[in-house]
Amino acid sequence: MNFGRMVVIAVNVFREVIRDRILYLIVLFAIALVIAATLLPQLAAGTTAKILLDLGLAAINLLGLVVAEHLWRMEPDAGAGILTPRRAEIVSGANLARWADGLGLGGLLSLGRGEDVTGGRGKESLLATALEAVLAVVYLDGGLPAARGAIARLARW
């Protein structure tokens, strides 16, 4: 059985067994980080991993929404020509990677040996994807208010 399949089975079992919400969230975060780093190409439709991936993709849109909303509230009279580039800079892969690095997510990624040896823990795309996966879990657990709060803390608003 491959590792990805074991993760899917584990999360389904844990969902039924774990009554402690904090432990369940730790499991979800761990799975999100594994998915972000190693399993994206191997996902099967309908699995828990696929659901988390879809939420990760939704987190990208969520991130854009929260940032755009914040920028608009800060400068309601500014036009799209001013706010759009600011939003794009904040949600860029480079910026997400900086936030992920600040959280220490690189050290938590489950990487293959080759990726680890070649510096994968510091790779911008992996760090940004890991942060998106974590934001997806935050959204899954606490909804839009929790995601807004997490993004605000990351952006230091």
Approximate shape: globular
- The arrangement of helices and strands along the chain is HHHHHHH
CATH architecture: Orthogonal Bundle
Task: Specify Rg, calculated over alpha carbons.
Answer: 16 Å
Structural class: mainly alpha
**DSSP strand (E) fraction?**
under 5%
Q: Could you list the spans in which at least 5 consecutive residues all have pLDDT below 50?
A: none
CATH topology heading: Ribonuclease iii, N-terminal Endonuclease Domain, Chain A
Number of domains: 1
**Mean pLDDT, all residues:** 75
User: What helical percentage do the residues reach?
Assistant: over 70%
Distance between the termini: 45 Å
Major pleated sheet: none
CATH fourth-tier homologous superfamily: Ribonuclease III domain
Please report the number of helical segments: 7
If you had to describe this structure to a student in words, what would you say it looks like?
The chain has helices at 3-17, 21-39, 48-74, 80-90, 93-103, 113-117, 124-155. With 157 residues, the chain is an all-alpha fold. It has one domain (3-155): Ribonuclease III domain (Ribonuclease iii, N-terminal Endonuclease Domain, Chain A). Helix 1 (3-17) runs antiparallel to helix 2 (21-39), helix 3 (48-74) packs across helix 4 and helix 3 (48-74) packs across helix 7 (124-155). The radius of gyration is 16 Å and the shape is globular. The model has no long low-confidence stretch (mean pLDDT 75).
